[in-house]
Design a protein that fits this description.
The protein has 327 residues and is α/β, with parallel strands linked by helices. The chain is built from 11 helices and 13 strands. The protein has a domain of 193 residues: Rossmann fold. The chain is globular.
Length: 327
């Protein structure tokens, strides 16, 4: 069933909108027929080419290259574009926090605080903030619902917990229109395969070149993988649902997959046979993730539409189609 167009005729800004998840969210917003759609991205990880499909479908898409921590610049753009809603996906990723921890924390918390402060002053009406399952740390129990304790195991995870609390504190203190989506491990086309790449693009790229695959630790650590378009659709539905305000909502598949199984599945989809090697565990890696999506079911009728296998087939096909292009 096609979702009702909840953003039709509105003016929307997406921070981090040229990134992996952000660009798919932009595609989803375009489907609703907004009056105005603005992407803010400093291209730290994002790529303008990720917006090609959105620009074809929505030629008036505006792109602004700037840092979302710049309060005055964000204030000016929101005012000039008369923005109604902001979807915040701008972020410094987890691997960067293992090298530049202080900077990662400062940047991530600053981005969120800037947007909350602009919401408090009435610059726009509604904020949908993207959290991360890393905020939970390793599972203390499964499935992990929104009441699961936050036990961040990396500076990145700590920055996401902190950012979430900034949003919730502004909601509680000032009665702002804000909600938080907490996605688990997203995968799909456009996932960054260069600096700070995730496991799926790394395995696909190495597999296509016939190179050995490296797995951190014993590979029995688990993740809950969710296809990126499912997350994008859920974010729009959360924005449209008043009952989500002041709440964190998990978005995931509700299924647990070990890294070993994921790699085997990927190599099967690729149709290649390459060595798999185990290397030292990565600092701060969570051991187990399996989400409860009961709250998302209750509030927005969420059900993941794409199975792991279906998503991997589409993802691999996308990487194969662009083989030889720069990462």
């Amino acid at each position: 069933m096609t979702p009702q167009p909840t953003l039709k005729g509105t003016r929307v800004l997406v921070t981090g909108g040229a990134g992996f998840i952000g660009s798919h969210l932009v595609d989803r917003i375009v489907q609703d027929g907004p009056e105005r759609l603005v992407v803010v991205d400093n291209l730290y990880l994002g790529r303008e080419e990720n917006l090609a499909e959105a620009r074809t479908a929505f030629p008036d898409l505006a792109f602004r290259r700037l840092d979302a921590t710049d309060y005055e610049a964000m204030e000016r753009i929101i005012a000039e574009e008369r923005i109604d809603s902001v979807f915040n996906l701008a972020v410094i990723p987890l691997p960067a926090s293992l090298v530049r921890p202080r900077w990662t924390i400062e940047q991530n918390v600053s981005i969120t605080t800037v947007l909350c402060e602009l919401l408090r002053t009435g610059a726009y009406r509604s904020l949908l903030h993207f959290s991360s399952s890393e905020a939970y740390g390793s599972a203390a129990y499964v499935p992990m619902d929104e009441a699961h304790p936050s036990i961040p195991s990396t500076p990145y995870a700590a920055s996401k917990v902190s950012s979430d609390h900034v949003v919730l504190s502004y909601w509680h203190t000032f009665g702002l229109d804000a909600a938080i989506v907490r996605p688990f491990n997203n995968f799909g086309p456009r996932q960054n395969s260069g600096t700070y790449a995730g496991i799926i693009p790394i395995v696909v790229e190495r597999g296509m070149r016939g190179e050995p695959i490296e797995i951190y630790g014993d590979g029995e650590q688990t993740r809950d993988f969710v296809f990126v378009r499912d997350t994008a659709d859920a974010a729009v539905r959360i924005h449209a649902t008043p009952a989500t305000r002041g709440r964190i909502v998990n978005i995931a598949s509700g299924r647990e997959v070990s890294v070993n199984r994921l790699v085997a599945e990927l190599l099967d989809v690729l149709g290649v046979d390459v060595p798999v090697q185990h290397v030292d565990p990565r600092p701060g890696d969570v051991r187990r993730h399996l989400a409860s999506i009961d709250l998302a079911r209750e509030l927005i009728g969420f059900e993941p539409a794409t199975s792991l296998r279906q998503g991997l087939v589409e993802t691999v096909a996308w990487y194969q189609a662009r083989k030889g292009q720069p990462a």
